[in-house]
């Protein structure tokens, strides 16, 4: 089965590709966006952008590589983004051309139409972007970026509708895939979720008259906004100072929210679908302890993402919880390793075993997921070097066996260890005393589906675990990718 | 009681002023130093420096503001630091002139003597530096930095001893205060601790013939070095490829290691005095739970420093442990707040309450210490806003009532809340349902002194809690500072 | 007569807006382009860009603000521009939106068409760009820059021709104004001049098989290329390794080369229309000496642009030539003046009078042109302060009375001193003993038209002096600009 | 005759090592210093520094690599340099350790003495600095820089005099060599010249009460100061708001001003020793035309330094003056050449022949000096390639045969072409039709010594031409350098 997918990044974690945020009806809206993006930084660290609108200054825009805190906090920059309406975006990387991102690929994108300007940012991935782009170029569109989002812009430019919201509807009816979108005109803040609602989008209120759209609730908290409701799957909301209008431009289907948002992507202090992300993860740990109990002295998380599940495992099993691995808080994503010597030290720059704690102990290690398995190996080595008597891996998600086409950067399928090996083979490869993944049913139970997963109508998008893709990844099929099931 | 101390930084945490590291007998020693300093970054984030020696290139030096990972990882810089012998330093800030640090204040300092070059770096604070500096200037020394360490250099320059190690002894016999020193000549790596051993200094082995000196054991772990022993209070070690020579140049006295290293400064994965720092902190939590029990639903740490004590409190009390407050991992020390609006949001940039978890619950919050009380107030506000039913603060150290003169940056005594208020007044000021500090005896017990603190011969320097200063802070006395007790 | 023109820059010199360069058939073509642009830096100092093509790497592009020497000389950058075919551009400023240039406005622009990529750069100005842009947006084009050149790109995208050269012809037939263009496909280097040939474009050979296009011959010299011929007005050349093809896609008209290129823009070591620029300027000085003789002790240039005419004036008049004003060679365009104090010193940062030389002397000062008159006033002050007995201004061009719409940045007409005052009034305003401009006939004679200017068929575009515009500035007419004469 | 001198820079020009400037009695003195240093930038382009004193802020200092205009013009920097008294320095390079300059080597140096702070900057070179440094280190001084000037500071620190001016005298009596010094205390601006007065130092007045010290008069002009007089050889002046005090601390000897300041270093608009530098250079050209006439069509300068002499040559000989070589005004000192290809193009990046002017002509080329001869060769190649019929080199200084030890960076003697070859051999090496240097007598005549050079008592230091060193270069003698004559 020849598979020809390639991805720009090849490390051992999955990465969300975006966080989005918009606000209207507040003074210095760009400052709010900066704060919201800071709270969403875990969804994308490569670059960020903000567009604002002010009646006197018109549309203003800024795009920068690097963290929000290092760019969008300088008064000199923020002063260039005046107005009471603004949207922003943080990105991880691009499926764009040539592997490296140009600053022009950084969203929000902005375009001037005959009826006025429009800025747009999206979280997700369009599965027919390649085909759309080819078609648009054939008709005279000039693409300036490698970003999917630019297809939406060009589709809008060619729409014969008279208003920007109508043109957005026109354009989004032509795209396939998973997307949550925030957009703005001179007077409107607009939010849209695809029909399945794969990516999250929250609606909040701020101050007397302000409205906020954000990928997660933690971004409402940081600006003191109150959570109003989620934008519904397939819904378009238009927020102005007069209030919120709601539209449903797409064919209605049963929603399929991304279950991996619960497992790893979202922040533990966010609430999605009425459920605390932290609490969900803690419950996954409880499910794991029930499904895969073990005799041991300590339960230790692989920090930081394994922590809530490790707490749940400890509480369910009665085995004491301990910080057996310590994370260096000064580790950035840009520790450039100068010599072969240091490169070989790998993960120890970031993590160190708390030797005095684990020595001679039987340790349960709880991690959120296993992608390639190489990190798990290194962690196992570290903890054995420190003298642990036994190591039992417990993974707070089912085996990751399939790539995501809906906005998550997954390695080539051939690199996914669970696509190639059974649970027992993985255990042997990593070299631990036992290894267990939570079951798909267990995961669903922790996420609030008491009965587990209903195979005829699963509540979530779980394609990375099940291979059942709810939206045809058209561009990929052209490259020869064989799908197990297409919904 | 008029007190006239002022400190350059005025925020609500105590800060260690330095971390030191040295290595000999390895290829590309500066790379090892960079890694060691990265592991010690929590001891100082303002700047770092490395000096190396190579027979062909002589002494090479580099000093940079900012994190180790951002500077001492670039091949272009590291190539300028060749050789098999190197030392380094990270610093928090200076007691130096004019509040801002110049790059020339960044250690290690280097000087060329008639018998060859010497680089030197120290962690601690000289309590007679002002007087020494005046005396040296009167005799024709020209000071180039605001650093205490330069006094040591000038004292060495005026010594009539023939070798650098002897000159170091001469110089260190003239200084007062707390210090751990690493120094290097063309062939020797030298480590010294003051007679009381206030600051830590560890000796390790690396490879076949290499020796390492480091402030903490976590810096040995990162380079795969093995812990040999601590440099003893009052000891000078001279490490060469032939081995380690040991000297005791100072009058011997009973050691007084800094107890705050256990409470806050050191990393939880370090071992000091044969005790795991993590485990000590966990035990402080247990002591707290015994000394100050409370009925509650959840035990939550103020992250990250309160975490081990919160785990201990939970284990002792049986109250479930939970991450009720989430720390934004992308928070740097340089989040410049652009507007009044944002400035007022304060601590929420860094911390967010996990609203869904704490709502309606009686919460025990465990923090490592209370300095000014302002952060505690903000955390209390956050957690009450999130709907907690009750808030009980438990502090894993006794009230911080006195400034440190031995290398820790403490605010003016008038700013220390515990110097002005009783425990009950602090509780009222912060506005919580209950508030308790661990007792000094409880702290000593957690640190391994089963019998608690022996008031006639305390095992640790605890001046910040007790006001009993084991070394006369001469310079401070001249400014009118009244001491409670001078050892 | 209400005139509503505004220009982004308001200083007292005219500025060429661009220099262009292209080369094919040489190894590391981008290096040649960097050198060529360095030689053309006087035509634009704000920013520069290079696009290259290599079969393996495809199209590569780099755009930078600042001097060529500071950017396009770093091996690390130049290595990213491989291939044997490359074009480049230096720009002064943009007539673009909002006064400040974005990096995306920096040429060459690049677009991917169905039949392959094309990069394009132009020198000149399109006089119907505003109207074209509106029309293109109405039909769904999305503009990404404020650059005129982007109109050409979108016109090409909408052409139904099958090859890029044909699409370029299609597009250029739709634009009005003055332009010299260099463009490139994967295999062709293309050059075009508008029908009047307002802006220069030179064709040269380099090595065995290489071809070069450049704004001026000085850019051929720097790479050791030999001058072949000028691209003719209205000609398109297509250079490949097989040779040069020539086309004439536009209606043929009598050429009107910009006379100001001789007066000021071009470098003195360039040859245009078979005439040495230096020699032409020297002859303008001779004409001036004949038309406006004066008794004096010294002839001094206003450096550096007045130098050749001053030499000619001295040679014709017999009055000794001297460097009475010295230019500070370390003056950049970015001397930011820190205080009111220094701002008032103005021109002295750049120029200083050679006091010992001019004291007590009757001085003839020769300058290339007078735009607003403010600089002339300051120079007059300087030279009088230094004790000159008399000051006689001689200007090596006729009065500049009309704005340029063909690629030169001219101030608002109301700011042009010669549009508001007679020669005598200007003399009084500046405050000198005498002031004379060369006549338009004298200028034509120096440029090789022995008989002077033929009013029925002038050989040059001299609209800035005569107000006779050979191409309708359509966009300007819409703003209410009244033309004296439209050809 | 083995000679073992080495110099850090190896190119084909001589370089002055410094320019100095000081001012007192004006508001925002540092702004004046910035302007003065900008005017003196030709004396040193590597780095610059300013120290200012303000009663409230104390001493402030800033040092930067790069041009004055790029650093000391930013309001943000200049605001950190308050006060009405300031001094500054620009440097070319250092005779310092290891070839590369550290920022700490950049003057003015500053030191805190028991009686207050003192900043000091000097132009020149101490010929016994190596010996002094060794002696000072033996007595406990710690050197922080590679700068000669630090010897002066340490000598001052060890003086038992009570005031800083007296300590400066003490220190300067111990040093040998050539120096002009500006220094400042909290209230005094101090200037000193060595007994021979080798380097220039000018005194001026500014405003009602202000005093200025500057290397050249052009730096007085830029701030609108009036020239008062030169500081005399061997004089110390102390300027305060009360006026100027004068002292003569050294043994009086006959002055020997550096003749090369006239030939090349000083700016043409400066006046030294009552003589215009421009006029002196023009007269050297006249002398050359008398001493070495030739039949030719054009006299062309090698720009820019050969220009005044070329004008003089033309005026004396009647041969027309022309700009046959054009200098690229955008050439910086930092054009990094990316490829072998470009490296071989060498001088053409900076200079281009005005081909149309020189073709078929017999050209006299006038240059200021010949150091290694390699540049002359390249210029000859350029001008022959352009088709000149004959090339006659005329050099406006005698053959440069000996290194300078008084503050000018000269290459190793073995690299000086005139130390190895006769005039005829040089002509052949360069490959021109004729080549003549002006005679030493001719040079003296142009400099105002009507009778030429008096060999028993030469008026100038001309060691670079004559090998007669007026001050023993002690440090050099120790390295084995054989002197022809020591005065």
Describe the structure using short key phrases.
alpha+beta, Glutamine Phosphoribosylpyrophosphate, subunit 1, domain 1, magnesium (chains A, B, C, D), PRTase_dom (chains A, B, C, D), metal-binding (chains A, B, C, D), six-stranded antiparallel β-sheet, glutamine amidotransferase (chains A, B, C, D), 487 residues, homotetramer, seven-stranded antiparallel β-sheet, Rossmann fold, disordered N terminus, glycosyltransferase (chains A, B, C, D), globular
Rg from alpha-carbon coordinates of chain A:
23 Å
What is the overall silhouette of chain A?
globular
Query: How many domains comprise the coordinates of chain A?
Result: 2
Q: What is the CATH first-level class name of the largest domain in chain A?
A: Alpha Beta
Strand order of the largest sheet of chain A: 4-3-5-2-11-10-12
Strand content of chain A: 25-35%
> Taking all residues together, what is the mean pLDDT of chain A?
89
The count of β-strands of chain A is 27
What's the quaternary structure here? Answer: homotetramer
Give the class of chain A from helix and strand content and strand pairing.
Answer: alpha+beta
Q: What proportion of the residues of chain A is helical, as a percent range? A: 25-40%
Q: If classified by CATH, what would the architecture of the largest domain in chain A be?
A: 4-Layer Sandwich
**Number of separate helices of chain A:** 18
What does this structure look like?
Chains A, B, C, D: Its cofactor is [4Fe-4S] cluster; Mg(2+). Chains A, B, C, D: Catalyzes the formation of phosphoribosylamine from phosphoribosylpyrophosphate (PRPP) and glutamine. Chains A, B, C, D: Its EC number is 2.4.2.14. Chains A, B, C, D: It catalyses: 5-phospho-beta-D-ribosylamine + L-glutamate + diphosphate = 5-phospho-alpha-D-ribose 1-diphosphate + L-glutamine + H2O. Four copies of one chain form a homotetramer. Chain A has 487 residues and is α+β, with helices and mostly antiparallel strands. Chain A folds into two domains: 15-255, 4-Layer Sandwich (Glutamine Phosphoribosylpyrophosphate, subunit 1, domain 1); 282-453, Rossmann fold. In chain A, 28% of the residues lie in helices and 26% in strands. In chain A, strand 10 and strand 11 form a beta hairpin. The two termini of chain A are 21 Å apart. Residues 1-10, 94-99 and 334-338 of chain A have low confidence and may be disordered.
């Amino acid at each position: 089965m020849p598979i020809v997918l390639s991805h720009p990044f090849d490390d051992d974690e999955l990465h969300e590709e975006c966080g989005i945020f918009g606000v209207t009806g507040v003074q210095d809206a760009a400052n709010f966006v900066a704060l919201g993006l800071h709270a969403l930084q875990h969804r994308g660290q490569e670059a960020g952008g903000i567009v604002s609108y002010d009646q006197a200054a018109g549309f203003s825009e800024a795009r920068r590589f690097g963290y929000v805190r290092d760019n969008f906090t300088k008064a000199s920059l923020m002063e260039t983004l005046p107005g009471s309406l603004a949207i922003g975006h943080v990105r991880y990387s691009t499926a764009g051309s040539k592997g490296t991102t140009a600053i022009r690929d950084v969203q929000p994108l902005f375009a001037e139409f005959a009826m006025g300007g429009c800025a747009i940012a999206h979280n997700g991935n369009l599965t027919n972007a390649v085909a759309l782009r080819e078609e648009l170029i054939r008709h005279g569109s000039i693409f300036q970026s490698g970003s999917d989002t630019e297809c939406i812009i060009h589709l809008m430019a060619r729409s014969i509708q008279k208003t920007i919201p109508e043109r957005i509807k026109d354009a989004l009816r032509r795209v396939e895939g998973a997307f949550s979108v925030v957009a703005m005109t001179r007077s409107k803040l607009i939010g849209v979720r695809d029909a399945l609602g794969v990516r999250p989008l929250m609606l909040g209120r701020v101050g007397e008259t302000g409205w906020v759209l954000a990928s997660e609730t933690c971004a409402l908290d940081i600006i003191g906004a109150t959570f109003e409701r989620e934008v519904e799957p397939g819904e378009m909301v238009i927020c102005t100072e007069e209030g919120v209008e709601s539209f449903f431009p797409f064919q209605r289907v049963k929603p399929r929210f991304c279950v991996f948002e619960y497992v790893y992507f979202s922040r533990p202090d966010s609430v999605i679908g009425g459920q605390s992300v932290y609490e969900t993860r803690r419950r996954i740990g409880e499910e794991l302890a029930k499904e895969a109990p073990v005799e041991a002295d300590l339960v230790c998380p692989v920090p930081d993402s394994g922590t809530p599940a490790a707490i749940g495992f400890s509480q369910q099993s009665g085995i004491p919880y301990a910080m057996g691995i310590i994370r260096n808080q000064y580790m950035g994503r840009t520790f450039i390793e100068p010599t072969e010597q240091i490169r070989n030290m790998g993960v120890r720059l970031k993590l160190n075993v708390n030797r005095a704690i684990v020595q001679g102990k039987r340790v349960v290690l709880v991690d959120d997921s296993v992608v390639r398995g190489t990190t798990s190996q290194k962690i196992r080595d570290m903890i054995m070097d420190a003298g642990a008597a036994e190591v039992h891996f417990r993974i707070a998600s089912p085996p990751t066996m399939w790539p995501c086409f809906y906005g998550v950067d997954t390695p080539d399928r051939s690199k996914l260890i669970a696509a190639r090996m059974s649970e027992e083979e993985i255990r042997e490869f990593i070299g631990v005393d036992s290894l267990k993944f939570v079951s798909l049913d267990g995961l669903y139970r922790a996420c609030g589906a008491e009965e587990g997963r209903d195979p005829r109508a699963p509540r979530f998008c779980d394609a990375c675990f099940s291979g059942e893709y709810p939206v045809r990844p058209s561009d990929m099929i052209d490259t020869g990718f064989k799908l197990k099931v297409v919904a």
